[in-house]
Amino acid sequence: MYFSNINVVKVVYINFKQNSCCQTSLHPDDMKSSFREIRQKDTFWKSITLDQLQAFEAAARHNSFTRAAEELFVTQPTVSMQIKHLTQVIGMPLFEQVGKRVYLTQAGKEVLNTCQEIFRCLEKLETTIVDLKGMKQGRLRLAAVTTTKYFIPKLLKPFCELYPGVSVSLEIANHEALLARLHENLDDLYILSCPPETQDVQAKPFLDNPLVAIAPANHPLANKRNLPLNCLAEEPLIVREEGSGTRKVIQRFFEQHGICPRINLELGSNEAIQQAVIDGLGLSVLSLHTLNIAEVRNQLAILDVQGFPIRCQWQVAFPKKKQLSIPTKTFLQYLLQASQNFCIDKYN
Ligand code: PGA
Question: What gap in Å lies between CA 255 and CA 104, rounded to an integer?
């Protein structure tokens, strides 16, 4: 429970003290007895902890110390000890045994009612705080690889409309720069297609990221079907810069198929590559997500090459040990859900 470490009763005590301090017109003897009373209550309130109340409430509800311990993930002697301390502070037995059965005493029933009231109040407070802090005025820091910029804003729009109080920042960088950010724990979530395969990072796939081979629309290979993979080795190839995730996937793919491409140009952006392909500087392999502008589409052809498209998936990643904020968790859920209805426009 959210408030498990708080000694709630202290708050009540402070109010009690403040009220008592207002009674300045008392006779000195009355003052003395009043202070004695305060000191007794002081000990009473200070000695009761939320753990004791939780242990007692669970034991009373289940009528079993063992089941209370299971529910609270503590040992049975811990529950017994908590209830023993609570009984001492109350100064009256809370349970009584009649025959083989254990019942709550009158004092036990009173304590149980109070416990349940306190827990109800705390749960309400918890919801209110989450609401206040979380989705009404939260913050979400996203970092995504360059190629995601073609679809992430589309997915973000409904989320921002739904939660106008959450301020969202989106850092765009290439794959390697993103990994460095992840390593330094600079953002809440990272969106990329090849997350590091280490134990400390959790990644969830949420959308397809097919990589396609492209040529100028008037290229001799443009209308051919089922081209052998080798044809890409015979043509000059334009690739993204070192550190790009797209480049990493392509390199791995060619290596796996024993192909040695002729790289004649390296460019730092998908748009620059598309333009270079249109201008006849070579062929390339890019994410289908980058081909979403009609003007570009009309000037390019997706080649029908064996083994293509290269199938990748966009993943959302975060450090396993990271405590995700409410806006982050909400966005994560939203992303996994919303991406199911998201389709990449088909080229051709
Ligand atoms: P990139 O990454 O934009 O750095 O090429 C793309 C990816 O991770 O697939």
Answer: 74
Q: CATH topology of 139-208+313-341 equal to that of 211-302?
A: yes
CB neighbourhood size of 122 (10 A): 17
Tokens describing residue 117: 């009231």
Burial 18-30 (b: 16+ CB within 10 A, else e): eeeeeeeeeeeee
| HEC letters along 96-143 | EEECCEEEECHHHHHHHHHHHHHHHHHHHHHHHHHHHHCCCCCEEEEE
- Among 16, 105, 7, 121, which residue's Cα sits nearest to residue 53? 7
Higher-confidence residue: 69 or 4? Answer: 69
Type of residue found at 69: A
Residue with tokens 């998936």: 313
Return the DSSP state at 196.
-
What is the CA(62)–ligand 1 centre distance, in A? 55
- Cα–Cα distances in Å, from 129 out to 4, 12, 168, 329? 15, 20, 20, 16
CA of 96 relative to ligand 1 center, distance in Å? 68
Ligand 1 contact, 240 CB (< 6 A): yes
Cα(8)–Cα(46) distance, integer angstroms = 9
Phi, psi of 219 (to 5 degrees): -70, 145
Per-residue pLDDT of 50-77, as tens digits, reads 999 999 999 999 899 999 999 898 999 9
Does 94 sit in the ligand 1 pocket, CB within 6 Å? no
Q: Is the Cβ atom of 261 under 6 angstroms away from ligand 1?
A: no
Instruction: Give CATH superfamily name and number for 139-208+313-341.
Output: Periplasmic binding protein-like II (3.40.190.10)
147 C-beta closer than 6 A to ligand 1: yes
**Quick one: pLDDT band at residue 8, thresholds 50, 70, 90?**
very low
CATH number of 50-119: 1.10.10.10
Q: Is the CB of 52 under 6 A from ligand 1?
A: no
